[in-house]
């Protein structure tokens, strides 16, 4: 296997999200965001899906996002380490509630803007291209309590003001943007991206599709704003992608797999990339008990979608999924907000996510065949129980092996003819897990001394994978041994 085909200028780097690493949840005028009211632990999702969940902080519970890894006070140290690895880019997000604490103010919080100015300048100091996600699971709590989350069309104007503010502030320094993180994850967990859960309407699928429409409109408004500021700006969508296999050749499973792909992998990208709703929209909605006439949309909004599609497709890939509708007794596995039937040909991570590097090659081919737009793998990685030795060194050969296999898959997909912009493994520095709120589920090249309760020295230590990834970047993907 040769991996010397990565194009010049390939964007090697890493990815994080503000709510999972910044901490300082009340510093600098920041308001409460959704993750600030999500308790930590493996029962996180069960708690927030309780009928009486009210988006308030329970003093009896632990909230790891309040502390994160205190990147707010350590960002210079962290970015210096990214620079030492040779990052060409760094994907991070801007916390909406740092810029607009309630989410609906008319004027931004200058302290928040100043903070991200400093983060961006620190990246540029090391020749690292910032790649910014405008909204990454960080909806201000006020927008949920006051308006009901993204099912309310009033949020379009709030997002437009937020996007215009940050694009205007940073566009001269930042070329690459994404509008919403894993927008399609709402198919299974609308709480994270839409601010919807059982207590405020998530069980009514009409609300989820209305929220998506509102986000599609908001995304196109951001593309319009960005391109008017500078036509060279690259503004992408970002989807969660799990290559999906039928368990067998049974036509029922084949049909179910096609429909699963439409519902989970393609629907949101079809709208944001192609600029219009796909032909299967009516049948997809019908399968979820929703009629097109149930949704509030206008001809002007549809025109906006058509005029301002995204420039590229960013996506996360951690695992593949298997569909079987013919046997209810199949073993099942966990996954990135969604699981599936166990694939007997694959091994699993410490958290039960099935490891499938070939699935990434398939994903790249499927997406490029469908859209013929540049692809950016902005999340991929192995969450594991790292065990440091007495010198705080983690010999994470398992992570190196995982990433090596996925880089080989990217190289193979490039040979297949796909256009890949870059690769930013998730959690390049250990951070709080989105799905469980744990620190013990670690992804990074850099170990952070902190436990699940937020206690520790917060010292940073290089893992074995740090030097390995530095070599990968320096060789532009040729040296991955």
TrEMBL record:
Keywords: Glycosidase, Hydrolase. It holds the Pfam family Glyco_hydro_1. This is 6-phospho-beta-glucosidase. It comes from the Bacteria. InterPro entries: GH, GH_1_N_CS, Glyco_hydro_1, Glyco_hydro_1_AS. Belongs to the glycosyl hydrolase 1 family. The active site is at residue 379.
